[in-house]
Amino acid sequence: MRTRHQKGHVYRKCYRWYVRFYDYIVQEDGSIKRVQVARSLAPVCYEYRTKRAVMPLVRELLEPINSGRLSPAGTVSVVRFVEETYLPYVSRERRSSTARGYRQIWKRYLKPRCGHLRLREFRTADGERLMTEIARQSDLSRWTLRHIKAFLSGIFKYAKRLGAVEGVNPVQDVAIPKARPEVETYAYSLEEIIRMISVLGQPAATVVATAAFTGMRKGELRGLSWENYRQGAIWVTQSVWESVVDEPKTQKSKSPVPVIGPLATLLDRHREAQSNPQSGFVFGTRKGTALNLSNLAKRYIRPRLQKERMEWWGWHAFRRGLATNLHRLGVPDKTIQTILRHANISTTLDNYVKSVPADAMAAMRSLEQVCTKYAPILGRDEKDES
């Protein structure tokens, strides 16, 4: 929508320069109305001590409006755009678990702080203020703050695709505030896994073994079906979150996972105990639904391990454990990436392969053996320098 060329009315108020001009604004009922608005330009200072000095700022502000490049859709509030446009888009295009996580981030951290900010007027300084307030008022890790920034950035990426805003994403240069360090994640050792399987009853032992020896995610374990266990491998085709059957996390996640002999034995015994079904969930209930692994861990696995003085670190610790155990056995990093079905090898190395004390001790022993060869040199004292 093109407006006639306007220069704006510049005025001074409370030691700041402002400009008044006309813009097309989307009203609450969805109609578009041409209204007069005012925007702050700069403080009154040595650089901007006269109206003439602030005119370049005025021209920069009004140029996209005069040219008609800006869509009236950009004048809606950030709150309205997110709730009426962006979150419905996320619900359509993203996994159900992702959509719920986004809604929680929006409701808990961002919506209360966005106020009446309009989409087009949102600046990097506003993003910086939001992130600083969230970090100061909430005890969050940098990992969580990165997720909040990513969500905020996604709002404006989508708005740009719709033509509601233009230019550089205002969240791009927002910094992650200082926050408490991320909690170190855990990876089960092979010894812990073997002991765990030996003390658990069925079907928990088979579920744990499948998690530990395939590296499947929790939702993929729940979605595993007998139809997809064949020819010595598991084909990951679906994931179950709560009661929703969904696609795996990524396209790469759909790759087959090889099944080692001991796990195949456990799965075959588990199948026999269920009267050899040819279809349905591998870990299902009597009603035919996917087994709730959170309840299984809470009601049975954790109490049973506590009796054995063992710690329960959650289902994802098995996925990290597989990466770490394969790494300790000398398996190439690229192969580990393939087994875990990661899109990038950096994800595998940075987040899944854990350095354990046993590795450190073995490394130091190797260094010690090498250094032993040079003992005469390393053992020299100052007298030998002559």
List keywords for this structure.
3-stranded antiparallel β-sheet; hpI Integrase, Chain A; DNA polymerase, domain 1; 3 domains; 49% helix; 386 residues; mainly alpha; disordered C terminus
Characterise this structure.
- The protein is mainly alpha-helical.
- It has three domains: 9-70, no CATH class; 78-162, DNA polymerase, domain 1 (Orthogonal Bundle), CATH 1.10.150; 190-351, hpI Integrase, Chain A.
- It has 15 helices and eight strands.
- The chain has helices at residues 51-67, 78-93, 96-114, 124-137, 142-162, 190-199, 204-214, 218-223, 261-273, 293-307, 316-328, 333-340, 345-351, 357-373, 375-378, and strands spanning 9-13, 16-26, 32-43, 229-230, 233-235, 239-241, 244-246, 256-258.
- The strands form three sheets. It has a three-stranded antiparallel sheet with strand order 1-2-3, covered by helices on one side.
- A hairpin with a 2-residue loop joins strand 1 and strand 2.
- The N and C termini lie far apart (88 Å).
- 25% of the residues are buried.
- The model is unreliable at 377-386 (pLDDT under 50).
